[in-house]
């Protein structure tokens, strides 16, 4: 896949504070790349440097294989801060102004309004919009120039659960349309649900980078319960069993590499035991995230 963003030793100091420290990463075309980290980890500063609103102290980055220019930035849509719209103008009129400023085709407006589900409210004044609708209009404004890449900084910040769910669905829709998305968030659930790849930052340092699908690989726990007096003893006889724990009457079996719940279920069934509860648990992004941060102390 084509590399759309390459970052090399990117560093930003604010006086004695190192906000971003020698950051290296790559984003490929079509990825939904999440930058995950607690507040103060350097996510927003990194995005600011990538968009040319913050000057790096050291290091470099390339968009589409070349240094950033006005031409390359035209291929990028971004929502970095709460954008300024005119409160007494409608969503439609605000987008028409945005398209004019960006030199974008005004015929794109109807499409982006549909993507962010604001078509029915396009003629209503901006001041009547909810916070979620304002955020969706900001995304529409970023999309009006039909960019190759969309950058979002904490896109669900301050929204209620319904607003968060709406933004997530919009992000998935945009990604399915083939656009590359770079998303900064401190919300683990957000990254796990919408991103294909993620990086973890802590105090400006890159702690981890990789596919979201790799989360939990190498660690599989099977919860099992059955009506059998010696179930614990029997589970120890299973060749795929590692560590076995019991919590609230349910056995938790750490599986050895190459063994899965279906193998354990077959083992029990062959001995005339039908499990009343059998469920697979993998390491969550939350657990991996906390382990990564703990290792960084």
Q: Could you outline the blueprint of secondary structure elements for this entry?
A:
Elements: E1 3-14, E2 17-28, E3 32-36, H1 43-50, E4 58-63, E5 66-67, H2 70-73, E6 76-79, H3 91-102, H4 108-115, H5 131-143, E7 149-153, H6 161-176, E8 180-185, H7 188-194, E9 197-202, E10 205-211, E11 220-226, H8 231-237, E12 241-247, E13 250-255, H9 261-270, E14 275-282, H10 285-295
Parallel strand pairs: 3-8, 3-9, 6-7, 7-8
Antiparallel strand pairs: 1-2, 1-4, 4-5, 9-10, 11-13, 11-14, 12-13
Any key phrases for this structure?
single chain; 297 residues; alpha/beta; Rossmann fold; Alpha-Beta Plaits; 2 domains; 6-stranded mixed β-sheet; 10 helices; elongated
What is the compact description of this entry?
The chain is an alpha/beta fold. The protein is 32% helix and 31% strand.
What do these coordinates show?
The protein has 297 residues and is an alpha/beta fold. It has two domains: 3-214, Rossmann fold, CATH 3.40.50; 220-287, Alpha-Beta Plaits. It has helices spanning 43-50, 70-73, 91-102, 108-115, 131-143, 161-176, 188-194, 231-237, 261-270, 285-295; strands spanning 3-14, 17-28, 32-36, 58-63, 66-67, 76-79, 149-153, 180-185, 197-202, 205-211, 220-226, 241-247, 250-255, 275-282. The strands form three sheets. Strands 6-7-8-3-9-10 form a six-stranded mixed beta sheet, with helices on both faces. It has a four-stranded antiparallel beta sheet with strand order 2-1-4-5, covered by helices on one side.
């Amino acid at each position: 896949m084509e590399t759309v963003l390459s970052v090399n030793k990117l560093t930003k100091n604010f006086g004695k504070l190192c906000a971003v420290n020698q950051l290296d990463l790559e984003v490929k075309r079509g990825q939904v790349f999440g930058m995950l980290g607690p507040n103060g980890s350097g996510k927003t500063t990194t995005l600011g440097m990538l968009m040319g609103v913050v000057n790096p102290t050291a290091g470099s980055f390339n968009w589409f294989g070349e240094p950033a220019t006005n031409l390359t930035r035209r291929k990028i849509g971004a929502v970095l801060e709460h954008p300024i719209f005119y409160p007494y103008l409608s969503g439609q009129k605000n987008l028409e102004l945005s398209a004019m400023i960006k030199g974008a085709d005004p015929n794109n407006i109807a499409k982006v309004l549909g993507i962010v589900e604001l078509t029915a409210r396009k003629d209503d004044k901006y001041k009547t919009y909810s916070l979620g609708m304002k955020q969706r209009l900001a995304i529409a404004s970023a999309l009006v120039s039909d960019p190759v890449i969309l950058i979002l900084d904490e896109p669900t910040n301050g929204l209620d659960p319904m607003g968060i769910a709406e933004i997530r669905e919009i992000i998935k829709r945009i990604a399915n349309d083939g656009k590359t998305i770079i998303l900064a968030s401190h919300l683990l659930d957000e990254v796990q649900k919408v991103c294909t790849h993620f990086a973890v930052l802590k105090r400006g340092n890159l702690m981890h980078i990789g596919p979201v699908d790799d989360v939990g690989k190498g660690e599989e726990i099977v919860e099992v319960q059955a009506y059998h007096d010696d179930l614990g003893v029997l589970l120890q006889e299973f060749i795929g069993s590692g560590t076995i724990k019991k919590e609230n009457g349910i056995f938790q079996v750490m599986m050895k590499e190459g063994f899965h719940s279906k193998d354990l279920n077959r083992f029990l069934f062959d001995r005339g035991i039908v499990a009343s509860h059998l469920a697979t648990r993998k390491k969550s992004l939350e657990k991996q995230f906390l382990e990564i941060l703990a290792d960084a102390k």
